[in-house]
Design brief:
heterotrimer, A mainly alpha (230), B alpha/beta (270), C mainly alpha (316), B: 270 residues, alpha/beta, Rossmann fold, 10 strands, C: 316 residues, mainly alpha, MetI-like fold, 73% helix
Amino acid sequence: MAEGTGRHILGSFDNALETLRNNVLMMGRLAERNLANAAKGLFERDDDPCNIVIADDEEIDTLEIQVDQEGVLILTRFQPVANDLRQVITSMKSSVNIERIADQAVNIARRARKLNAHPELPVIHSLEPMFAHASSMFADALRAYSDNSAEIARGLKARDKELDEMNRQFARTCTERMAGEPDSVRGYLNLIFIARFLERVGDHATNLGEDIVFAVDAEEIRHTQASRTD
Amino acid sequence: MESELKSPAADPSTASPEPRPDFIQVKDFNFFYGRKQALFDITMDIPERQVTAFIGPSGCGKSTLLRNFNRMNDLIDGTHHTGDITINGRSIYDPKLEIIALRRSIGMVFQKSNPFPKSIYENIVYSLRIAGRRNRKFLDETVERSLRGAALWDEVKDRLNESALGLSGGQMQRLCIARAIANNPEVLLMDEPCSALDPIATAKVEELIHELKKDFTIVIVTHNMQQATRCSDRTAFFYLGRLIEFDTTEKIFSNPSQKQTEDYITGRFG
Amino acid sequence: MADTEHFFTAAGAHRAGIRSFGNKVLNVVCVALALLTLIPLVSIVFLVLKNGLPLLTPAIFTELPPAAGQAGGGFGNAVVGTFQMVGIALAIAAPLGILSAVYINEYAPTSRLSNTVRFVAKLLTGIPSIICGVFAYAVIVLPKTGLIEAVQGWREGWFRDIALWIVTSLPSGFSAWAGGFALSILMLPTILITAEQALLGVSKAYREASYGLGATRFQTIWRIVLPDAVPAIMTGIMLSVARAAGETAPLIFTALFSQFWAQSLNEPTASLSVLIYNFSTLPYEHQQNMAWTASLVLVILVTISNVTAQVVFRKR
């Protein structure tokens, strides 16, 4: 188990790694906030949070580019090996996953705006547990990154399966209702899309977890069939 | 500490905050060992208070150019040059400038650490003694300042009177750095300073270079490209006596303009 | 199958056995020859000790040589004389040799002058010691009347006055000066060559560091190079002292001999080597025994000098 213990003799190396980490965590916080705002906009039928989400996404995109550049710079300058190398690679991959999650938040916000223009569909509240589940997966993934904890990260895969199941259920419910309410088909479709976006958030959070396990334990747990239980 | 290179009008207490981008300026410089030409038309501006690295395969002239900055090559018979080198605006070949004064304004650290077979204390104050300074208090202060500056004070403060030859390799090299900065030079020249050191000692010296560049302009010749990437702000690539490319370290090592540079740093030749 | 002979095969073991037998024979032969070379050394020491020890008393160093046929006495004046003349020789040869070595090694290593000096020094190391004596005889011992007359004939002026002063104060006649001068010629080549080797032995890196810090050539030589070369230079000096102390031929017609304590350096002076020469040819047993004792003293002094060179000045 690799733990970043002592500081590097080369202070600038430590500083660069810390900056990289902080930028990734900042991206994560911003993405979390955007996801929460999207939920707010959706469930409270308020367009303002949705607009904020769409506007704030730019900052996350900029950070993604910055994290990549910083990562390449660290690789060039310091030729990290072992744990340091895995951390840098994972940080660069995490920035991609976080940016995608942020994109899903934007997508949700856009659909929410469309839904808010029409009367509320009661089934919308069945999305709340999904939202909570996806958000908590993301939050845990960020915590795993911040704490360098492979344990938290490993648990994400199982929870993703739950989220997939919740998505399937919701889609079924919606299609059933759609048949009986043809005027609200658009609304139901939007809801199905939103559920799909949340499922993607779960996938990306799982990816984050897999990369973190690689960083911490140098173990590859992607694309394995076994569902890990602790 | 008078430095011959400071322009006479400058007041040392209010040092210019703007570092010169052309602190060391090489203009159309050609250098010959007898009839053999070693450097061809070198023109470059080395910025103040930054670390500039010279890289290139063996025999490319990087050490030769470095040793010209403090005219150490004058010690070899039959060398001559065309073109000029100026430091802080003043030509180092100015006939009114004494070579001794030039060398006292420039510190040099060699590949293999070469402390004198004297005590640690005497090693550091050597440059002061040859300049005629004898005040005991001043010497003591200089010793402490230099050793602190070289990150060696805590390790040797209790054995200043012991022989310098009893130190480890990494400590000896840091002692040579302390000796070089004792006289408050403006420029620090380092010719492959870490090539004889183990990785930990190397890392300590590199961290030291990082600190030193706040006060000194540093030029370092290195075989080890990774050292150049870790330490330097700008890198110059030399090949067969010519300057092929000179740019920021980031640019050179991520996207060099010259194919030769890319071939060398990726290990396709050299 | 091919050339590799494994010790573990029978054939291989057999060949290995022959080789190791040859090795052993060679070992034995070498050891024997080494022991053989010790024999003359050991026998000299033994003989000198056996014959010289009986008369070795403190009186040796305080009394004067006995007249022919008489018993008792010592050779204190000869010991003093040897010290005096070796001292003079050292005072002349050491600065000359060391500074010349500094010049040819530090200032102009490749010049024609330096190469000539090196060549001549090597030649002079082989000079027969009697030639040194003859030369000193001609230069110091013989009266300088001809030289003085020649200088007196020069154009009048301060230059002539100074030259005259130098020429008239040159020592002449049989004297310790002449003996010391002869010995210095003997010592000079050795000191010069050893000093040059010593300077060459100083790491180039020290000089580079010194110049890099802005030292002049003089400062570098005085503060770094010479101090580091001192042990080796001292070794060379001690070795040449050891040799000069035992030379007889140069002293025979420069310092002659004296039965008395030296009153000044301008008169014939006794020395151990000449004393040994004189006394061993006399038909009196006591004098011959004294010669043995003098030999013993000389050997002891030479040994001390050599040991000092090799032990005390051993380089760290």
